[in-house]
Amino acid sequence: MPGRANNGIRYAIYTRQSVEKADDLGSCDVQFMTCRDFARATGEPGLHWTDQRFDDDGYSGATLDRPAMRKLRKVIDLGGIDRLYAVALDRLTRSMRDAIVLLDELDKAGVALRLVHQAELTSGPENRFLRHVLAAFAEFERDMIATRIAESRAYLKKHGRRLAGPPPYGYDADPVTKQLVPNAPEARRVRSIFKHVAAGRLPKQIAFVCNKQGWTTKVRVAKRSGKTVGGGRWTARQVLAVLTNPVYVGQFATDDEPRPGCHEPIIARELFDHVQGILAGRRTTDRRERTRQGFPLRQKIVCPRCGRMLTTYTITKKTGPRSGLVYRYYSCRSNAGGRARCKGIQYSAHNLEAAARDMLSRPDVWREILGQDAPIKDARSAARTWGSLLWPWQMDFLRRYVQRIELRRKKSEMAIAFDPAVREAFSADSQAFREPAC
Length: 438
Hints:
The protein has helices at residues 28-41, 67-77, 89-92, 96-109, 125-158, 184-198, 203-212, 236-243, 269-282, 287-294, 349-359, 363-370, 376-388, 391-401, 421-429; strands at 9-17, 47-49, 54-57, 83-86, 112-115, 171-173, 180-182, 219-221, 228-230, 251-252, 259-260, 301-302, 311-320, 323-331, 346-348, 402-408, 413-418. By secondary structure, it is an alpha/beta fold. Strands 1, 2, 3, 4 and 5 form a 5-stranded parallel β-sheet that branches. Helix 6 packs across helix 9 (269-282).
């Protein structure tokens, strides 16, 4: 473990920006230069930067679970710095509880905190109290922002307005109102796609026709990176996404029933309903119910070869006139973007789900989920509780809280990333383990 330098003051700079934006005066680069100039202006002899950046670009200050913050806390714990610079306290955190935890860690490690916009707050009981007050205001401001966003979304929904996200194929976003306006060439193609289904063609056949005519998927410029995305080949899945989107009849899709919109429809309601009836008649089971119950890790497992999400499928082998065995698999069968599927990438759903459940029976995995500052007894208790749960409860837990699974082919191992909500649910009321909804 590295110790303190015999001479000189080693300092680090932490920056954070909630939303990634190019050329933003609040960007991490601008924050870094501001802190660096502030440190150099002191003229202290022996003051030198550690040559290591700690930038959390596009991360909220609601929790300390951020990549650069995790790395910084490890450096602090190992005694790697003597001083920490930040533009303001709310760049470090917007949570009162997390501010107290972080300030305690800095004090225990002997690391001095310097804030550019609150330069007078250094050490001492009075300044420590003021820092806690500032942290409380930062948390209050975050809650107020969340409230204003919720009120704005409620207003937009009530008046049939678009909320956010890229415009769907067939529409563009008005540069002033941000609402949807038809894109004439794309709208004609959407009508053609619906007419193909009404004529009896399958989505795979329609995708072939689209690609043969030189049509590409929606082209747009990503706001965060400024890169042009889309413009690829059509697939059956993308055709289905168009056919089932109520936006084309003047509505917006929601988790429940579609809500009315104020934009101009480009498909007649009679044609849309007719196509939905055709698609429903082709389904042998309720797809949403099958997905919810049968594959808790659907769209969560990354193909180790191409990086796309694995899809799911079943094979039924009859054992009698009215009975059969159903075998479930996670497999790379996607041809998104016109790329061929990866042959040989197929896993038994039972084996993968069992491996994930086995991992959650280990206290060290729960220590990582709950955070390294959580007591080890909590991790052991969570592991014991997990082992006592019924199988349906464990499967529902995987469905709700697993975000991403990466498979390592050579070592036959998996790495699981969990939704941060699992930590909050466990620490708030110990109800992360609850009976699944029927």
